[in-house]
Write a structure and sequence with these properties.
15 strands, 6-stranded mixed β-sheet, 22% helix, 373 residues, alpha+beta, L-amino peptidase D-ALA esterase/amidase
Length: 373
């Protein structure tokens, strides 16, 4: 009998790592074809993953456990066309460049990158260089304020060694593609820790009538005792191996949709990310940078050249509740998948961060009557 998990993007990642649904973790809502942010037509995701060295930390030499994630709202072909966007900071102990302009203008221009805290500037600047090199006419007489987000990977990574270079950013941007995407310790999520398990990159999507909502997270937040999966306080039952034991870290989340929405409505979607984060147990600790951006790929004609007035379609506010629910559901699943689709990692000074053990997770969920088929 063929393995039903093989080539099923709802159950496994492209490299064959299990996703939460394959373990019987129940989730609300109907996912898109790939259960990823790339289910929104045109959205592309790319990674550059940097893993090298072992043993004691030598600043500038390693060990290195880091990387870059790139999200292109309209892919490379539609790169030059902005998208309507809105952002929200649930707790501001973090950074997302370009957010002030997105808030002011209601739009996001060009690629979005996510990396480690001390490489955020490199990602931002290299994105501009990539635009200049690949689309020179776009910035010939203009300027750019690209979005770049960060979370801290210094527990596992030589973060002060500045190992992310412009070439890594270029690699992530050049590799961006639609379809199924890898999850876990890849790209900017490579060295991240979530609820004191190995965390990192996660994504999920939901279908809402004719529209799709997708979420992508770089999960690096929470303490073990808070972790809640399918309503079960899993972190209280799966103890041992905690390496942080204190509330630090952050989460960057990007929400995409093809539903026609205005910037103020997208800001409302971005706010709902916090409810999705809360489903997994977080309280948005003081030292956590929980920063979210939502964008819509609809209304492409709004960006035509010229000064004339133009028409834009948008859903009425009373029709947004299903989209709100989709954001909460996709964010929650993306976070859980960042844990499930992962492996134990040893980094600087021999620090080992354990992956969420699948067998113990299934046992706890079964004991609470929450294990699906």
């Amino acid at each position: 009998m063929p393995d039903p998990h093989v080539n099923n993007p709802h159950l496994v990642t492209p490299s064959g790592k299990a996703r939460a649904r394959s373990l019987g973790v129940p989730f609300d809502g109907a996912p898109g074809a790939n259960n990823a942010i790339t289910d929104v037509p045109g959205v592309a995701v790319g990674y550059s993953t940097i893993i090298r060295g072992d043993g004691p930390l030598v600043i500038g030499e390693g060990p290195v456990r880091t990387g870059v994630t790139a999200i292109l709202p309209r892919g490379r072909e539609g790169f030059t066309t902005p998208v309507f966007a809105g952002g929200f900071s649930l707790n501001g102990a973090g950074e997302m460049t370009g957010l002030i302009w997105a808030e002011e203008s209601g739009q996001c221009e060009g690629p979005i990158t996510i990396t480690n805290t001390h490489s955020c500037g490199t990602a931002r600047d290299a994105t501009i260089r990539w635009i200049v090199d690949n689309y020179p006419a776009e910035l010939a007489d203009a300027w750019g304020l690209p979005v770049a987000g960060e979370t801290y990977d210094g527990d596992l990574n030589d973060i002060n060694g500045f190992h992310v270079t412009p070439e890594h950013v270029f690699e992530a941007l050049d590799n961006a593609a639609s379809g199924p995407i890898e999850l876990g310790s890849v790209g900017g999520g490579t060295g991240m820790i979530c609820y004191d398990f190995k965390g990192g990159s996660g994504s999920a999507s939901r279908r809402v009538g004719d529209y799709t909502v997708g979420a992508f997270v770089q999960a690096n937040f929470g303490i073990r005792s808070e972790l809640t999966i399918a309503g079960v306080p899993v972190g209280r039952h799966i103890t041992g191996g905690e390496v942080r034991g204190k509330p630090q870290g952050s989460i960057i989340a990007i929400v995409a949709t093809d539903a026609p929405l205005m910037p103020h409505q997208l800001k409302r979607l971005a706010r709902r990310v916090g409810l999705g984060v809360g489903r997994s147990g977080s309280i948005a600790h003081n030292a956590s940078g929980d920063i979210f951006l939502a964008f819509s790929t609809a209304n492409r004609a709004a960006w035509a050249e010229g000064d004339d007035a133009r028409d834009c379609a948008f859903l009425p506010n009373h029709a947004l509740d299903p989209l709100f629910a989709a954001v909460v559901q996709a964010t929650d699943e993306a976070i859980i998948d960042s844990l499930v689709a992962n492996q134990t990692m040893t980094g600087r000074d021999g620090l080992t961060v354990m992956a969420l053990p699948h067998d113990r997770l299934r046992k706890v969920l079964k004991q609470h009557g929450r294990l699906g088929g």
